[in-house]
Amino acid sequence: MKTSWRSASLVASAAVVLALTTACGQDGGATGSQNVGATAAPGDVGNIGAGAGDGLGTGAGGAQASASPPESAGKLSVSTNAEIGELVTDGAGRTLYRFDADTAKPPKTTCENDCATAWPPVAADDALAGEGIDKDLLGEVTRPDGTKQLTIGGWPAYRYAKDTAAGDVKGQGVGGKWYALAADGKKAEAQEAAGLSTREDPKLGEIVVDKNGMTVYRFMKDEAWPKPVSACTGACLEKWPVVAPVEPDDTEGVVKEDLMTFTRPDGAEQQTVDCWPIYTFAGDKKAGDTNGQGVGGTWYAVAPDGKPVGAPKK
């Protein structure tokens, strides 16, 4: 009987220990399923990387999660995004990013484990400098696992797992720490267009456009000498809005001589090119439209030197 009592006591104790162990295992398993899994939520807030206390099993003494080696880069090139501006893409057209928690001088990567799953590092070994890329700015950094990661201007380069197609920029600004890479290693950012610039139109040749890319026109009934005079008044201005003053330094490709403004009878200031008043056309709905060309035989797009494009010669 004494032996049976001891056996029962041992069995009961083992059951308690097993229950406690199972409960802890379940709790730890739940935590793990939240941090490591199909979702990349931790990467989305841009706050995961190496080091203790990140809550992802990457702290000191923890086992490092296995990660795939960096993916090949291929031939790098510069692409243009309407909102972000010029950015670097890999050979497959995927956007490359940089992480604010990394450093460039010296190059150092802090994105490991789960972070590297959400933001796969770019391999350095096969990276080639394509058009718009300075090969002297390409380098590499050795990751903690010994693999070589591409750097651009010193900054380690990554892709974003949620960018599923060429041209995607879903990683831009994630967590306030992830940004598309510019060719010089800086953060890609759109440059504000000049107040007046030129573009090559397939039918009209080089013509002047405003900061929004809208075609600029001249009215043949206006005067330029000895001073600018606009013959477009009243209802005319509803169809042909005047171009507001532009600083000479805020122009590209436009002849700066006689690039001036004048005061209209209604008190508004209007820009001129070669002293000729300039306008846009309400019938142009998007950048690149030239619906005002030749209207009434008196309205014509403006060449960089101020001459009317396609107007009959007198």
Automatic annotation (TrEMBL):
Range of residues in the leader sequence: 1-25
Compositional bias (Low complexity): 63-74
Cross-referenced InterPro entries: Lipoprotein_repeat (IPR005297), SCO0930-like (IPR047910)
Recorded superkingdom: Bacteria
Keywords: Signal
PROSITE patterns: PROKAR_LIPOPROTEIN
Positions of the UniProt region annotated as Disordered: 59-78
Record GO biological process: alkane catabolic process
Pfam families in the record: Lipoprotein_15
NCBIfam families given in the database record: SCO0930_lipo (NF040526)
Identification of the protein by name: Lipoprotein
Protein's organism: Streptomyces pactum
